[in-house]
Amino acid sequence: MSGTVPTATDSAATTVEQADLAPYDAVLLLSFGGPERPEDVVPFLENVTRGRGIPRERLAEVGEHYFLFGGRSPINDQCRELLAALRTELDGRGIDLPVFWGNRNWDPYVGEVAREMEAAGHRRVLVLTTSAYPSYSSCRQYRENLYDAFADTAITVEKIRHYADHPGFVTASVDATVAAVDGLVAELGAGVRPRLVFVTHSIPTAMAETAGPPPKSPAGGYVDWHRLVASAVTRRVADVRAIADDHDVVYCSRSGPPTQPWLEPDVNDHLTALSAAGERAVVAVPIGFVSDHMEVIFDLDTEAAETARQLGLPFARAATAGTHPAFVTALVDLLVERAAVARGEQVEQPVVAGGTVGRYACLSGCCPNLRQPDRPALCQVAGAL
User: What is the pLDDT of residues 68-78, one digit of tens each?
Assistant: First the structure.
């Protein structure tokens, strides 16, 4: 890991002059995966939940979310769009390394892609995941899958840092939020000051409390990083638009048993509470997701939007980062930054004000696997937190 001091800034990402990814010879975009036809839905959900004891009736219930959209998740198409945007940005910088794509839970499976990369002669690979925050489910689980995929290959695998607090990611969210606020104000009138409600995936509180390296609050790094990003986006939106003084961080997509505590409040419960308190309009900002996959188009665009409609609460949903130019630029900057660190160079590591530089290599006890504490993971160093 680098010993450099992070530079806190709310400006666009610092331009990285060295357009070189040496010593890496390939890049891997690692994502969650999703079904692409109705017959894929149940096998996909079984992959996702294997070993977690999720009741089959819950799988059937979640499967219905996919069938509402033709039995197809949008996430794979969004990965293809991101791949194309990354390729364009890399080409524009004169970087011709190949970019592969693999999934944890569906085709193209990362294990199969690992063998493809090895057969093509690649030996040191830099990984970019479509998950921006520290926690077991959003970081360590990806690294466990990387271990499974690459353990018996000749390839060395490293990753970029966690990037939710990178200015490029925040800028994409700011632009999307401003657009959503403008849409509501155009509909309702200039006197309306929408309240920003930031949404992310709920996880068990035990997982949240152990997420991320110190320093962190008792709530854990997963919650801390979301609160930081929500505050950063709110500050910048408030500089250019009239919005409510307060904002919130809420959760969606709970999937555990009722007896297990998960992060709350649920977005639907919170909308109900805001309506009862007299809030006049809400913009939901999905900062926990980098693209409009199922948790966004069902949990927010379908379920939360219907809750708001029933409450008579004007509601808009901001876009995810997707292929926003600032986000794509930031991702390639992060690739170049990581390569410079691997070469032993001192680099600037931009984060928003109050942010911390995410880990390149995680300590072995960080974001522990509470069910299988001894399960190995790549991109980590010895030691325990």
Answer: 999 999 999 99
